[in-house]
Description:
Residues 122-193 form the Thioesterase domain. The protein is of the alpha+beta class. It contains 4 helices and 8 strands, in the order H-H-E-E-E-E-H-E-E-E-E-H.
Amino acid sequence: MMPDLAQPQESGDGTRFAALAVLAQQVRDLVDAVVLTDVPEEELTAVTADLVALTERLKESRRAAPLPHEWTPDGRFRHLGNAVTGECNPHALPLVIERTPEGGSRAEITFRPTHEGPPAAVHGGVIAMIFDHLLGDAVAASGAAGLTGTLSVRYRRPVPYGQPMTAHAAVSRGEGRKTWVEGTLTSAGGTVLAEATALFITPAQWAEALGAR
Ligand SMILES: CCCCCCCC/C=C\CCCCCCCC(=O)SCCNC(=O)CCNC(=O)[C@H](O)C(C)(C)COP(=O)(O)OP(=O)(O)OC[C@H]1O[C@@H](n2cnc3c(N)ncnc32)[C@H](O)[C@@H]1OP(=O)(O)O
């Protein structure tokens, strides 16, 4: 079913969300520790037992779905449960996106060893995931908002982890419910590592809701 972004969203307890964000960051640290650990097998087994107990504690009270998106009082779109940007979702980098004065979107990114695909480089699917969201944000920055229809990535150089880099995206043109958008991932030294183009489509019911905002 199409997500209905026009619906008012639940407002949360900010203090509890802050605590959840700290927990999510701890779990990211845990994931990195698992990926890189070299402790003996008995220690792995002992840590696993501890984690089983912790997981059961968290499962004592469960939601049906991740935290939903919401519009903040200052008019920003926030989605704490998002897989790419959600501060409360350990899966998210999280990607922190800024809007550029030119009307596009940008983010500083440092990938981690957890994101490895080919040896010593970031997985191409992880790079595509970052582009998907950043290009989608640029579409939203342009006043449209939509779902990805197509996304094409040109991988120019292996992307290293552990080094800060910058991603940019900006809309190139729009036509009705279609918006074309382009992006780049650039090393700190200015080398373009990957480029993306995408077509986002505004679902008809979103177009109506956006028009009413
Ligand atoms: C109140 C609203 C508030 C919104 C607030 C948002 C704020 C945002 C803020 C922050 C940004 C966040 C950023 C998120 C980024 C993440 C993005 C994702 O990961 S999205 C998940 C992956 N993508 C999907 O799951 C799509 C699944 N597909 C669909 O749902 C539909 O196929 C959809 C909506 C893409 C198109 O369905 P139709 O029914 O609207 O399309 P039809 O009416 O058939 O076609 C319209 C035109 O588009 C073309 N078209 C349709 N689908 C196409 C496609 N896949 N590729 C190319 N063209 C396509 C058609 O050929 C047609 O073109 P002709 O008018 O004839 O010229």
